[in-house]
Design a protein that fits this description.
The structure holds 2 protein chains of 2 kinds. Chain A is of the alpha/beta class. Chain A has 10 helices and 14 strands. Helix content of chain A is 32%, strand content 21%. A 6-stranded mixed beta sheet of chain A has the order 4-3-2-1-5-6, with helices on both faces. In chain A, strand 3, helix 3 and strand 4 form a beta-alpha-beta unit. The radius of gyration of chain A is 23 Å and the shape is elongated. By secondary structure, chain B is an alpha/beta fold. Chain B has 4 helices and 7 strands. Chain B has a 5-stranded mixed beta sheet. Chain B is globular, with a radius of gyration of 14 Å. Classes of the chains: A alpha/beta, B alpha/beta. At the A-B interface, helix 3, strand 4 and helix 4 of A face helix 3, strand 6 and helix 4 of B.
């Protein structure tokens, strides 16, 4: 049975209103029907977790219809706000394969036999983005003669940039859940608890604490909870946990992820497992100063490039510019929306963050900073969901910024 | 006189309705309300034919056959006469016919999945009718 939307729910999202906004944009562009295929599009419209290949068909007016893999259709029908008639399935059956189901729905059920069809194409650093594949496009193009295909992903991307109240509340909750993971990890590490503990185990300890606090997934495609210890902290910004044991005298980076009602908690915290050297402490102090400086400058009107300049200036002044990765953030939204900043793909390098994108109030990003000295076997990472405000920002994880030494 | 009914004839249709109503009480049909139009292509006579079955609150209320004017059903299944005949003779499972593309289903697949076992029950009853193909 479909979920009843309750405007009094603190996490309420006006999904029917989102559909109408999309349809309004379609009308402006003379798009007769929109075929969405990206994970972020499903999350934005359905407010349900759609892990299998899914498609959503949005007519010029009225409700959209989802097509998902048959094994998961009933579950999605139970979780989304759309009624049963608008949650459909495809299957390896005659007439029910993806191409037949989609093309016949558009022609027969919607009665649209020609016109302009919006679809989602592009390139992403995120494997699971879900743009229409060449195979899908070619077959659908054959099955729907008379249609002009218009790449229109920026409709959804544009509408999803500024977060509504319910979405913001979900991110606040997801971030506080991540803090519970960090508290549990801290407790497990102290008093020698780290001895014999692997990266994978500390990831699991945090995952359990976050699940108990309300998270349903460690969502991150790059390794769920990302953990690095020792020399691995200097290897970059994607470190799925391994069975490497945490050891004295080494740095440790814990990057935890929670998911609450499709909102994605994301916070990284760093430790030095004692005894720390003066050089390690110098690196740590640099990193805390850099993060503090950047956080102090997030506000409406700032841009990725302006923040990067501030970070670089700070790094130069501290003599640590060689160790920073020159970027401060990645995009964030409901599940599936976790990379590019902004809505359009017309920056200097298409489908990458436009460095001159100007942040607006109630936009959200993950402040994401990486500091690394692979030669010295040390690195740190900071990530935190932040809400852009008129004169500043709200960082949603409240876990104190520091690089603690675990004695 | 043969005691077999010609497949999809009026007599076969009446026998199908009688058997479905007597052998599939509403509770065995999960008290469902639905309908299905099977469209038979490449029939022996050259014309397309149809078999329409309707259930209301689990009771089979209509079985219709004919060559034109197939009623609209919640589901529409299209295939060759011989494929349907094999299913009715219990020589081919309807699921296999769908999964191999021999039959083409139109309608809400998510709902159809819930009805798969009921369709099987109907087919089993129909397969017991002495039939001349």
């Amino acid at each position: 049975m479909a979920r009843i939307l309750d405007p009094k729910d603190p996490y309420y999202i006006d999904n029917p209103g989102r559909v109408k906004s999309i349809q309004s944009e379609m009308q402006k562009r003379n798009i007769d029907v929109y075929l969405g295929s990206r994970v972020r599009t499903m999350s934005f419209i359905l407010d349900a977790f759609c892990p299998w290949r899914s498609y959503i068909i949005i007519p010029a007016e009225g409700l959209p219809t989802l097509f998902t893999f048959v094994i998961d259709a009933v579950r999605i029908g139970d979780e989304t706000w759309l009624d049963e008639d608008h949650v459909r399935a495809y299957a390896p059956m005659g007439g029910m394969d993806q191409i037949s189901a989609l093309s016949e729905f558009i022609k027969d059920d919607l009665g649209i036999t020609s016109g302009r069809i919006g679809y989602e194409d592009g390139v992403s650093t995120y494997t699971a983005e879900g743009n229409l594949t060449h195979w899908e496009f070619s077959r659908l193009n054959d099955a729907l003669p008379g249609f002009e295909w218009i790449n229109s992903h920026d409709i959804i991307d544009g509408l999803s940039i500024i977060k509504d109240k319910g979405t913001i509340e979900r991110f606040r909750k997801a971030s506080l859940i991540v803090d519970e993971g960090h508290k549990a990890a801290r407790a497990a590490l102290e008093n020698g608890g780290y001895k014999g503990m692997t990266e994978a185990v500390i990831a699991g300890i945090a995952a359990l604490a976050m699940r108990k606090a309300g998270s349903v997934s460690e969502w991150n495609f790059a390794g769920l909870n990302e953990i690095s210890s020792g020399y691995r902290t200097g290897l970059g910004a994607c470190t799925p946990p391994t069975n490497r044991e945490i050891q004295a005298g080494e740095p440790l980076m814990l990057d935890f992820h929670s998911m609450f009602q499709l909102a994605l908690g994301d916070h990284s915290h760093n430790y030095l497992i004692g005894p720390a050297t003066d050089r390690q402490r110098w690196h740590g102090d640099n990193f805390v100063a850099l993060v503090s400086t950047v956080l102090d400058n997030y506000k409406a009107g700032a841009s990725p490039s302006s923040l990067a300049e501030i970070m670089l200036d700070c790094a130069e002044s501290r003599g640590c510019a060689d160790f920073i990765v020159p970027g401060c953030e990645h995009g964030i939204g409901l599940f599936g929306d976790e990379w590019r900043i902004g809505a359009t793909a017309d920056g200097p390098i298409p489908y990458w963050t436009d460095p001159d994108h100007v942040y607006s109030e109630n936009e959200m990003v993950v402040c994401a900073m990486q500091y690394q000295s692979p030669e010295e076997g040390i690195g740190f990472r900071y990530e935190n969901d932040i809400l852009i405000l008129k004169d500043g920002c709200e960082y949603m994880s409240k876990y104190p910024l520091a690089i603690e030494e675990i004695k | 006189m043969s005691d077999k009914h010609v497949y999809l004839s009026t007599a076969w249709r009446d026998e199908a309705l009688r058997r479905l109503q007597s052998e599939l009480p509403p509770e065995k049909m999960n008290n469902i309300t639905t309908s299905m139009s099977n469209i038979y292509k490449n029939c022996p006579g050259g014309e397309d034919m149809f078999l329409f079955v309707e259930c209301k609150d689990g009771k089979v209320t209509r079985v219709e056959t004919g060559t034109t004017g197939a009623p609209d059903g919640e589901f529409r299944i299209t295939g060759d006469y011989e494929t349907f005949a094999k299913i009715s003779r219990a020589e081919l499972g309807s699921q296999k016919a769908l999964f191999t593309g021999k039959l083409k289903l139109k309608g809400n697949m998510a709902k159809a999945l819930k009805l798969a076992s009921l369709a099987d029950r109907i087919n089993k009853v129909l397969s017991q009718i002495p039939t001349e193909y």
